Amino acid sequence: MSSSDAHHSELGAFLRARRGELTPAEVGLPGSAGRRRVKGLRREEVALLASISPDYYTRLEQGRRQASEPVLDALARVLRLDDGERAYMFELSGRDAARPRRRIPQKVQPQLRRLLDDLSTTPGVVLGRRTDILAWNPLAAALFTDFGRIPEAQRNFVRLVFREPAIRALYPDWEWVAQTSLAQLRMEAARDPDDPRLAALVGELSLQDPDFRRWWGAHRVAVQGSGTKVLHHPVVGRLTLDWSFLTCADDPDQQLITLTAEPGTASHDRLRILASWTARSADDPAADR
After folding, report:
1. Which element (helix H / strand E) includes 124?
2. 206 phi/psi in degrees, rounded to 5
3. Cβ neighbour number for residue 66 with a 10 Å cutoff
4. Distance between CA 265 and CA 228 in Å, rounded?
5. Where is the HTH cro/C1-type domain (predicted)?
6. Measuring CA to CA, how many Å separate 90 from each of 12, 41, 74, 77, 221?
7. Closest CA to 65 of 15, 1, 7, 8
8. Is 133 domain-assigned?
9. What is the pTM of this model?
10. Which ranges of the chain would DSSP assign to H, the alpha helix?
11. Potential cystine with 183: which of 102, 220, 281, 288 (Cβ 3.0-4.6 Å)?
């Protein structure tokens, strides 16, 4: 399957999933007296609301037609897409299909590595494409897990969220964290649907984890630049940490994720205790190099 065909096929699946979540009442259509034979909106109803022909919309879902920008805007409105879902739909429309795809292995950028090394009281992780973990500092290893013991080919954040017991145990709200990380991974799939490593990751997790398989099939997408994580750490207890990322100018596919706690809170004090404990117990501070 070509890159264009893969985009169109995924666009059709995405549209079906989104219309399946809406009811006629939610979009201002009258309900029917009998039982509906389809979940959510019918194709004809989406087409009516978007002011396009049913045949045009059917061809979009079947991957046999490329949508214009006005049609995509109309569908985003009809299907109540948020900003991340709208961006994802436009990615799948094929407008970026000519953009070159880089498949060379990523290495952490030197400036991010230096910045990471200077963060002695702040956990930091550099994520690359597919949420691959490219680098981390000792405090991040103390907070999450010893990334150095994980084979490099398996050092991926989404994979660890689903398959690493120590990571699962950290999150009281694991299900929300897992679904959010998966939704961000699907944005990666839209940017490069032919990436063999991404396909292998999705295939592996789909076979091994029924939750991943079910949530991946829901076609949820998300774009987040900051947020809050709640963790229950085995050494210092409950932590409420704010996270944000810094994108590398030389390689926009690399992002430095940092986690901080509000000064004066118990989480701030506990994070400082963990930093002090890490500084005393770390035998090899360059384990991730």
Report:
1. strand 124-127
2. -65, -35
3. 16
4. 14
5. 36-86
6. 12, 21, 12, 13, 12
7. 8
8. yes
9. 0.70
10. 3-19, 43-50, 54-61, 69-78, 83-92, 110-117, 138-143, 157-163, 165-170, 174-191, 196-208, 210-217, 266-281
11. 220
Q: Sheet holding 133-136: strands in order across? A: 133-136, 124-127, 255-260, 237-247, 226-233
Instruction: Clarify whether residues 121 and 83 are in a common domain.
Output: no
CB atoms within 10 A of CB 137: 24
Residues 208 and 276 in one domain: yes
Tell which residue, 89, 84, 83, has the closest CA to residue 71: 89
Residues 140 and 74 in one domain: no
Residues 79 and 128 in one domain: no
4 touches 91 (CB < 8 A): no
Q: How many domains does the chain fold into? A: 2
Domain range enclosing 190: 110-281
| CA 72 – CA 244 distance, rounded (Å) | 30
Which region holds residue 131: left if phi is over 0, alpha if psi is between -120 and 50, else beta? Answer: left
Q: Token pair of 157, please? A: 């954040």
Residues 173 and 258 reside in one and the same domain: yes
Residues 77 and 136 in one domain: no
* 126 and 170 inside one domain: yes
What is the full per-residue pLDDT of the chain (289 aa) written as tens digits? Answer: 556 677 788 888 999 999 999 988 888 887 655 555 667 899 999 998 888 899 999 999 888 888 888 888 889 989 999 888 888 888 888 654 334 445 577 899 998 999 999 998 999 999 999 999 999 999 999 999 999 999 998 999 999 999 999 999 999 999 999 999 998 898 888 777 778 888 889 989 998 999 999 999 888 887 777 889 999 999 999 999 999 988 888 888 899 999 999 999 999 999 999 999 988 875 554 444 4
DSSP 102: P
Residue identified by tokens 């259509």 is 29
Distances (CA, A) of 263 to 48, 129, 267: 53, 32, 8
